[in-house]
Every structure is written in structure tokens, then in C-alpha cells.
Design goal:
Helix content is about 0%, strand content about 70%. With about 80 residues, it is an all-beta fold.
């Protein structure tokens, strides 16, 4: 399992990549989940303020994660 965690304006955003799929948690609540094996994945969520979260994951030789808030990149690994 690979896990990324960021804090954004007092909110904890956690993205998990497992063999069984990917998950997006916001402040401990599951907001989106993709089930199955894929080389790319997109997850969506929303903060209490109404801001939209988009997570893009993918990669050939390792999983990379990018987190966008309202279409602005806030995390990249």
C-alpha cells in the first residue's frame, strides 16, 4: 500500500493506493473509491467549504499522485 497525506487549510486529505483499488479520505471520511487494478485513476471529493478535490494517480514504474483543489495543483509526488 502507498499512502499520501496532506493538510490543506485545516483539512486532512489522505489518498491510499492498494492492490484492491484507490481511496480518497477527507477528514477521515471516505469520499471516493476506485475498485480494481488500473495504471491510472481519478478520484473526486469536496471540502466543507465547497472546494472541489481532484486526485490523479498513475505511472509505469511507480505510482505518482497529484492533488488539485479547485483545479490548482497543491501536491505532486
Amino acid at each position: 500500500m502507498k499512502k499520501w497525506e496532506i493538510n490543506y487549510c485545516g483539512n486532512t486529505i489522505v489518498v491510499e493506493n492498494r492492490i484492491s483499488g484507490e481511496r480518497l479520505y477527507v477528514n477521515g471520511d471516505l469520499q471516493d473509491e476506485q475498485i480494481g487494478i488500473a495504471d491510472r485513476s481519478r478520484l473526486w471529493g469536496q471540502l466543507q467549504t465547497g472546494e472541489t478535490i481532484k486526485v490523479s494517480m498513475g505511472g509505469l514504474f511507480g505510482m505518482h499522485c497529484r492533488i488539485f483543489i479547485n483545479s490548482k495543483l497543491v501536491f505532486s509526488e
